[in-house]
Design goal:
Blueprint (H helix, E strand, L loop, with lengths): L1 E6 L7 H14 L7 E10 L10 E9 L5 E7 L2 H25 L1
Parallel strand pairs: 1-2
Antiparallel strand pairs: 2-3, 3-4
Helix pairs in contact: 1-2
């Protein structure tokens, strides 16, 4: 499973941050790693330099082997919370999609 990170110009994407997110996402989605070929993680600060509630956005697009891509988005106060929320949403979506495949 390959994980690619993309940030907007308002987010400082450091190598340390990418390693942390890479590890947490990989661990959270390890159950589905045989089905996922690539994850694209898009991080953005929607208000830029201004302060605001839920202005950090994480969108994760999962490329699944033999299936249509699956995308989820989460907004939160911090990037860490946004990534965690998007990862949780992606786990739920993967469970639904892959569960339907098993039942047919």
């Amino acid at each position: 499973m390959i994980i690619q990170f993309h940030t907007d110009h308002n987010i400082n994407g450091s190598e340390r941050q990418n390693v942390y997110f890479n590890t947490s996402i990989t661990e959270a989605l390890s159950r589905y790693s045989t089905h996922i070929t690539r994850l694209e993680v898009h991080l953005a600060d929607e208000n830029g330099a201004k302060e605001g509630k839920n202005d950090q956005r994480c969108m994760i697009e999962a490329r699944l082997e033999g299936l249509q891509p699956l995308a989820v988005t989460n907004h939160a106060d911090t990037i860490e919370q946004a990534v965690k929320g998007a990862t949780d949403k992606l786990k739920a979506a993967l469970e639904t999609v892959l569960g339907k495949l098993k039942s047919h």
